Amino acid sequence: MQMDVEKVFHMTGGIGVTSYAKNSSLQKKASDMVKHITTGTIQELFLTTTPKSIGIADLGCSSGANSLTIIKDIVDAVERSSRNILHPPPELRVYLNDLPTNDFNSIFKALPEFYRELKKEKNGGCPSIFIGGYAGSFYGRLLPNNCLHFVYSSYSLHWLSRVPPALYDEQGRPINEGHVYISQSSPPQVSQAYYKQFQQDFTVFLRSRSEELVVGGRMVLILLGRRAQDHVDRGNFFFWELLSRSFSKLVSEGEVEKEKLDSYDVHFYAPSKNEIEDEVGKEGSFGLDRLEMFEIERDEKDGENYGKAVARTVRAIQESMISHHFGEGILDSLFDNYGRMVDEEMAKEEIKPLTFAIVLRKL
User: Fold this and answer.
1) Which helix (H) or strand (E) holds 217?
2) What is the pTM of this model?
3) pLDDT, tens only, 134-146
4) Helical ranges in 24-158 per DSSP H
5) Residue of 217, 355, 205, 356 lying closest to 291 (CA atoms)
6) DSSP 3-state assignment of 317?
7) 294 vs 357: CA distance, rounded Å
C-alpha cells in the first residue's frame, strides 16, 4: 500500500532537538552560497521591468528561520536597486508555499518580529510587504495567472510528488527489496522508475510556473543532483545507501520486519545536469540562463560529531515518513546506527553531496 506523500510528508515542526528548525544548517549554507545568484537575479529583473508590485513565491518554504531569511535578502536587494535608480520601491507580494502538513504556524508567529526588524533597519522607510501562506503541492497550479515575477525554491525539487509506482510489479510486489533508494544491486527498472517520475514531475512544475509567471519572470532553483549519468556515486546517493544499511541492521536484529523494509522507498531523485537541461528544453516555456554545481563543505561544529549532525538532519527530513511506515519506536536506534555509519565512511573517504543552482527565465 503506497503512502500518500502529500498527506504524510513534512519536515519535523516546532523547535525541539530533532526539529527541522534546529537541523537545517546545511540548507541555510546552500542558500547563503548562492545568495549572490538569487539577489543578482531579482535585481536584474527589477531593473529591466520596474513593476510597481512584485510577486515573489518561495516554493517548499518549510518552517524555521531559513524561509524568512531569504525573503529579507530579496527585499533588501529590490530596495537597493530602486534606490540606485531613484525609483520608489515596489510593494512586495510574498507567497510562501509548502505541503498542507507543513508547520506554517511557526512562520506566521515569526512575522511580527520580522516586520519589526525590517522597519528598524530601514528607519521606518520600509517597502510594503504582504506575506501569505499557500498550502499545496507545487506539482500543479498554486497561484493565479501572471501574478509572479520571481520564484525561489531551495532544496525542494529533488522531492518527487510520489514514490514511483513502477517500483512495484503488477502483483504489487516490490522490485527493489532491501533498499530505500536506487542501489548498486537494484535492477535497472529501479533507476528508470525514478527517472521517469522526475521527468513527469519536473515538467508539471515548469508548466505550472510558466502560467503563474509574467513573461521575463525568473526562477532560482536550488536542488540536489549528481555529476555523472551513473546513479551510484559518493554523493547524495550514498546517504540513502547508508540509510538502507541502517535499516538492514535493524532487520538482522529483529527490530524491523524485512517486508516492512522492502515496501519502504524514498520519494527522492538527484538528477544530472543533462537530465535537467533536457526537461527544460522539452517543456519549452523557459530559457536556461545559468546552471552551476557546487559542493558544500562539511560543517565542523565545536565538539559535535559529524555523523550525529548528519543523522539529525536526515531525521528532521525523513521522520514523518519513517514513523508513519515503521512506527516511532525505531527512530532512535535507526539514527544512532546511521550516525555511526556516516562517521565510519567519512573516515575512509569524504562523501560529497552535489547541489545545483539553476536560473530560468520565462520566455
Assistant:
1) strand 213-225
2) 0.91
3) 999 999 999 999 9
4) 25-33, 35-49, 66-84, 104-121
5) 356
6) helix
7) 8
